[in-house]
């Protein structure tokens, strides 16, 4: 699994696959695991670009993460020139059991030098337990110079910066077919009300058992329910606003506060309306058993017109699908209540150090730099929230749109709420409650009350 959310979900449902990737400081050497070095073989690098990080005599820096497979190989490519020029060897262990393994490593006195955390909540637990070292010196300077306050805040614990955001995704997207919109004269909505008017128009123009305005699915194995939590979080940001969103995520107001119930009911106005959802699939309740990624394929089959999913859904599209404003499918920003508001739900990976060794902090500083961000983006498949990230280096139109939103100074960025909640809630009772709600077993108030009662 190769996305931020999918990697997280996979940790609970897939077997362990551990990939070791070791880079040597010698140009042209192979990476452990059979991959070759990035940026060519590292021999073409201008090492003057790396002098700021220092020169080391074969120091080794170990990195643990959830990143494996093809994405792990791409990650290893991104530091080839850095290791060649600095002499730092990087050993990477990517596993879908990261969340459990990192605690075993720390408790056993065998923590890595660096880790890439997909959840701010997990990073905060490590910091509060006294296991992480603060970003210092050049690493801290690079982080503060290259990231917005919103992005940095999710790696900051009690006023100390531990985590550096290295890659991200935007979740506030609706996917559609540009050609179908053009054929029908439909315009991209700029407000939530316009989106609902478009929904009604599509239903009036095309509504039938096999064609509906929206397609929707929340099945994801052991992580079933997370797409519903994402949609709800987007609604809370838009209707209740970012301050209430923060209070809700931090449990400063009840999980079933009336404002939060209203936001879930707003989502229900779409996904529980039989006239609106799952043409070609079934009734509204079918979403509970429809694989989340497969649901969106109905846009390509002309069975639906709108599918809410994050930027990383692009990786699930069938081979040969043309993605772009003139392609088979593209995405637009999920609109807010007014056109001048820009709430943006995001997810991301944060790198943090377990020690303040010079080589560790130098490596962290490199990952905080625009140079790393642009190198990694040019390899493909990801985007960075780094302010110095050049959209031209993104490998697709959707990723370029993602960067534009991330770098918009007017955007109100908020991290995926369930990723910041206690794991028994964010990856447990919240998923289960919204699955039961989607299946019609409980109403919005009862679903959220059950989560409130589960809060530790």
Automatic annotation (TrEMBL):
InterPro entries in UniProt: Bact_solute-bd_prot1 (IPR050490), SBP (IPR006059)
The keyword Transport appears for this protein: yes
Signal peptide annotation: 1-27
Segments passing through the bilayer: none
Keyword entries, A-Z: Signal, Transport
Domain of life: Bacteria
Pfam name, any one: SBP_bac_1
Family named by the database record: Belongs to the bacterial solute-binding protein 1 family.
Protein name in UniProt: ABC transporter substrate-binding protein
């Amino acid at each position: 699994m190769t996305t931020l959310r999918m990697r997280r979900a996979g940790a609970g449902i897939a077997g362990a696959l551990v990939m070791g990737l070791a880079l040597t400081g010698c140009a042209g050497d192979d990476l452990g695991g059979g991959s070759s070095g990035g940026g060519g073989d590292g021999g073409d690098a201008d090492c003057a670009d790396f002098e700021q990080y220092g020169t080391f005599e074969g120091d080794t820096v170990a990195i643990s993460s959830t990143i494996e497979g093809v994405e792990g190989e791409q990650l290893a490519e991104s530091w080839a020139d850095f290791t060649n020029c600095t002499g730092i060897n990087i050993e990477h262990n990517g596993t879908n059991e990261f969340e459990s393994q990192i605690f075993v490593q720390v408790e056993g006195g065998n923590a890595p030098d660096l880790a890439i955390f997909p959840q701010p909540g997990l990073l905060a637990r490590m910091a509060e337990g006294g296991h992480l070292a603060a970003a210092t010196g050049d690493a801290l300077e690079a982080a503060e110079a290259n990231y917005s306050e919103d992005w940095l805040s999710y790696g900051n614990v009690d006023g100390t910066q531990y985590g550096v955001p290295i890659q991200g995704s935007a979740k506030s997207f609706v996917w559609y077919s540009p050609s179908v919109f053009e054929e029908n004269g439909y315009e991209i909505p700029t407000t939530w009300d316009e989106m609902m008017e478009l929904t009604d128009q599509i239903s009036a123009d095309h509504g039938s058992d096999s064609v509906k305005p929206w397609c929707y699915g929340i099945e994801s194995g052991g992580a079933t329910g997370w797409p519903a939590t994402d949609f709800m979080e987007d609604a809370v940001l838009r209707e209740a606003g970012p301050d209430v969103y923060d209070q809700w995520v931090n449990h400063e107001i009840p999980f079933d506060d009336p404002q939060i119930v209203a936001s879930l009911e707003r989502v229900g106005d779409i996904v529980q309306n039989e006239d609106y959802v799952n043409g070609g699939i079934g009734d509204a309740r079918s979403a509970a058993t429809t694989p989340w990624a497969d649901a969106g394929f109905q846009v390509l089959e002309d069975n639906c017109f709108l599918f809410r999913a994050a930027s990383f859904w692009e990786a699930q599209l069938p081979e040969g699908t043309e993605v772009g404003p003139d392609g088979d499918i593209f995405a637009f920003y999920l609109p807010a209540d007014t056109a001048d508001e820009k709430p943006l739900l995001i997810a991301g990976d944060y790198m943090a150090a377990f020690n303040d060794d010079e080589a560790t902090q130098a490596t962290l500083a490199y990952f905080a730099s625009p140079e790393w961000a642009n190198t990694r983006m040019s390899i493909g498949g990801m985007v960075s929230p780094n302010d110095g990230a050049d959209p031209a280096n993104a490998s697709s139109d959707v990723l370029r749109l993602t960067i534009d939103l991330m770098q918009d100074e007017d955007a109100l960025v908020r991290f995926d709420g369930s990723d910041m909640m206690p794991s028994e809630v964010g990856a447990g009772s919240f998923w289960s409650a919204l699955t039961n709600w989607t299946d019609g077993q409980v109403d919005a108030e009862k679903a959220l009350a059950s989560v409130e009662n589960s809060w530790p």
